Amino acid sequence: MITSNNATTDSSASTTTTSQSVLDMVVIKTVPVDRVWLMRHIVMYPHEPFDFIKIDGDDTTALHYGVYIKQSGQDNNNNNNDVVDKEESLLLVSVVSLFVNGQKDEAQFRKFATLEQHQSRGYGTKLLGYLIEKVKEMGISKLWCSAREAKSSFYTRFGLIQVGQPYTKNNIKMIRMEMIINQQQ
Length: 185
Ligand SMILES: CC(C)(COP(=O)(O)OP(=O)(O)OC[C@H]1O[C@@H](n2cnc3c(N)ncnc32)[C@H](O)[C@@H]1OP(=O)(O)O)[C@@H](O)C(=O)NCCC(=O)NCCS
What we know:
By secondary structure, the protein is an alpha+beta fold. It has one domain: Gcn5-related N-acetyltransferase (GNAT) (Aminopeptidase), CATH 3.40.630. Helices cover about 20% and strands about 35% of the residues. It is built from 4 helices and 11 strands; from the N terminus they run ββββαβαβββαβαββ. The protein has helices spanning about 35-45, 75, 125-135, 150-155, and strands spanning about 1-5, 5-10, 15, 25-30, 65-70, 85, 90-100, 105-115, 140-150, 160-170, 170-180. The strands form 2 sheets. Strands 3, 4, 5, 6, 7, 8, 9, 10 and 11 form a 9-stranded mixed sheet that branches. The protein has a two-stranded antiparallel ribbon with strand order 1-2. The longest helix has 15 residues, at about 125-135. The radius of gyration is 16 Å and the shape is globular. Bound molecules: coenzyme A. It comes from Cavenderia fasciculata. One of its GO terms (molecular function) is acyltransferase activity, transferring groups other than amino-acyl groups. It holds the Pfam family Acetyltransf_10.
C-alpha cells in the first residue's frame, strides 16, 4: 500500500485498456473516505444533509474502492472537481464500500454509486467484479448487500440471489441479496 498526499493507492490497482474508448485507462483502487462521502452525497442523497451519508465504520474498518478514469475535456468542465484525483488527473466515477464482520467470514458491500453522467458505461460492473475478486482473496465465505429491489437484476448477473422478503427503508423498496464466495470447510 502506497500513500501519497490525499490519495491512497492500492498496490494491486488495476489498469485496464479495452477496445471501447470510453473504458480506456480505467483504474480501480482504494479511495479516501472523504471522497467516498462526496460521491455518495452527489449520487445517492443530494437533498439530505451531508452527514446523512456517513455510516458506522466508514473511517475505521471499511474498505472503500473506486473506479477512476482519465478525464476527458468534457469532464474537465463539470462541477465534480472535488472527486478528481488531482495528482494523477483522474476522475472518480464509481465507488463501493466493503464491511467485513468480526469473524472475517462475511462481508457486506454498501453505498454503491456511479456518477449519473457516467452510469450504464460498465464502470459499476467492473467495480463489482473487482470487489468479488478481492473478497475471494480475503477467504471470506459470504458476500451480501441490501439492494434496491429495482436494481436486483444487476446483482443477479454476478451470482447474488434474493434472500427473504423485500422491506422498505427511506421510502425505497429493498431486498437482501447474497452469494457464497468460498465454501466453508
Ligand atoms: C447501481 C449503479 C451503482 C450501477 O453503476 P453503473 O456504473 O451504472 O453500472 P454499469 O454501467 O456496469 O451497469 C448499469 C447498467 O448499464 C448496462 N451497461 C453496462 N455497460 C454498458 C454499456 N457499455 N452500454 C450500455 N449499457 C451498459 C448494464 O447492463 C446495466 O444494466 P441494468 O441496469 O439493466 O442492470 C448506478 O446505477 C448508481 O449509482 N445508481 C444510483 C445509486 C444506486 O441505486 N446504488 C445502488 C443501490 S443498491
